[in-house]
Amino acid sequence: MTNYGAVKAMGMNELAGFLASITTCCGCPAYVNRDGHEVYTASLLEWLADLFQGKEINVDDEPGETSDMIHHPDHYTWRGTECTKAIKIMTSGATGADAMYIGNIVKYLYRYPAKGTPLKDLMKARQYLDFLITTEEVKEKKREKDK
Known about the structure:
single chain, 62% helix
């Protein structure tokens, strides 16, 4: 079953539990100022609202598919290539949290200023850069300690 099918098959209590679990992930780096969670949660809730209003939701990602707000929003394609391709290149060789931080930095810089929230996108990129710098500083201190 696809994620779409799993969400669609949930009862109200199960769906409420699912939404609560993804919006209260206190261990997630994006939770620090909740901005990242608010963005992701708002997108999910918008998608769910469309789903429950009976709107047609295209969940296929076929090659050659035209731009749409689910699979190929303009703010992730406007630089001439899919943002996901740039993220794959930039995160190559990175793992775990480092890969996530780099991916988010690329994502927010890629869509700047096309999404209409230029300052917010730059601040989000900076936030993830700060997470990455902090992680690297911790690694460096550990390497120095292990010498």
